[in-house]
Amino acid sequence: MTFWKGRSVFVTGATGFLGSWLTRELLDRGARLTVLVRDWDPQSELIRSGRIRECTVVSGEVESFSTLERAILEAEADTVIHLAAQALVGVGYHAPLLTFESNVRGSYNLLEACRRHPEFVRRVVVASSDKAYGTGPALPYTEAMPAAGRHPYDVSKSCTDLLAQTYAETYGLPVAISRSGNLYGGGDLNWSRIVPGTIRSVLHNERPIIRSDGTFLRDYVFVKDAVSAYLLLAEKLQEKNLAGEAFNFGPARPVSVVLIAGEILKLMGRTDLSLDIQNTARAEIRDQYLDAGKAREILGWAPRWSLEEGLTEAIRWYRDFLAERK
Description:
alpha/beta, Rossmann fold
């Protein structure tokens, strides 16, 4: 807890799903937060909770280099956590330019701004993804496997990953990379995703929609476990000389989309609802899951929340959230 007390931290994507929970935790630990906000969304957990009032807010986009540099300079940011991204596979398929501008341009802008100001920036953590591996030659993915995305969203995360490694190798930037499985939990308002979409369908007494054939295997990481992963990686980055290193974060228990939806139906007491399996998903990798042994051995990270515990917490959050909007 004392590591973060009084430390100046700049977070991009702070009002997003992961960003909201990570920012709240940093505030609880005593950090001084500067956050980049593109759109003021009152449904964001960081805004909805009122905790954004404890942050310095910089309005702008990661596509603007001058905005990022100004934020880092004015905050005298010691730590930078880069989460901002276009985060949906489907949007990437339909709008590749938007995705590349946000995820690729945004990443090299952020890294370059950090490179220019070593007098402040001591550590940078960049959000990549399991999608950066593309369709790997074997499962589970290990950090030794190359970034090899093929579809637009996957490629954008591969590029983010490689850019971070480039800045570490060429310029000595103290940047490390997080590759996590699918995050879930309260605050995710992308209803096309399986967890929030299924919970909302049940609360509306509707059949949950499965866009794939339901058999795709994925890692599901509770958002508070992801927060602990990012903070540990930042804390250990200099101590263990982790510049340029990537870390997988996953539960080592991949499950199918149908199993996740079925577990939600069971926890909500609605096993009478059948799933609407549409099998229309495009540009998605069938099976993806991670070997998180490196994170366990070097960082001492392991997920604390079981799937049942995480889903129960998420269901509680969405019940409250949707009840407020009736």
